[in-house]
Design brief:
Layout: E1 2-5, H1 22-34, E2 39-42, H2 51-60, E3 65-70, H3 77-86, E4 89-94, H4 99-106, H5 110-123, E5 128-134, H6 145-154, E6 159-163, H7 178-186
Parallel strand pairs: 1-2, 2-3, 3-4, 4-5, 5-6
């Protein structure tokens, strides 16, 4: 009942063949809709580099909800106007705590991009939530009462938490210790 599409080129060159063409995406969505699947999640890379294609899909398949995982940097006023007209796209925006903890992991300015995007989405009545990756460095920041209040104030309707999973040459120091995992379970 729920399908996840990963249409963009993965970051590692050896996985470049794993990307889906626009035609393949349209075919998959059409098949899903014909089978009664009404919720499709689109991940990336950054799916909003294909804004036009996403808008076309959402318009053609108005009875399907598209949930887009995004870093929020490509959400702008014009895009929000188009999304609001369609009514079947929601967003799961990446955020990893305070400005300091978030930007340390995602890059300078990402926290401000999240704030800007959430304000635009809220202004246009577009439902959004969060996609939060917790690590040994940010697990307390993303579970603090202040962070929860910040998300509510920004207008987030829901959130997903994902624990850090190293792939390839990823930083192993970001893995949670057993004690940190217990903290997360208790929190």
């Amino acid at each position: 009942e729920n399908v996840i599409l990963r249409p963009l080129v993965p970051s590692k060159a050896e996985n470049a063949g794993a990307t889906l063409s626009d035609d393949e995406i349209y075919k998959i969505v059409k098949e899903c809709a014909s089978l009664g699947i009404r919720k499709i999640r689109i991940t990336g890379g950054e799916p909003l580099v294909k804004k036009k294609e996403i808008l076309r899909l959402a318009k053609k398949h108005h009875d399907v909800e598209f949930a887009i995982y995004t870093n929020a940097t490509l959400i702008d006023e014009e895009f929000c106007k188009q999304v609001a007209k369609l009514g079947n796209i929601i967003f799961l925006m990446s955020i990893e705590g305070t400005k300091e903890t978030n930007d340390a992991r995602r890059g300078e300015g990402h926290f401000d991009a999240f704030v800007k995007a959430s304000n635009l989405l809220k202004k246009h009545g577009i439902i959004f939530g969060t996609s939060i990756c917790y690590t040994s460095k940010n697990y307390k920041a993303v579970t603090s009462d202040e962070f929860y209040q910040f998300l509510c104030d920004q207008g987030a309707h829901f959130g997903f938490y994902f624990h850090y999973m190293p792939v390839g040459d990823a930083a192993l120091d970001l893995l949670l210790t057993p004690e940190q995992r217990l903290y997360m379970i208790d929190r």
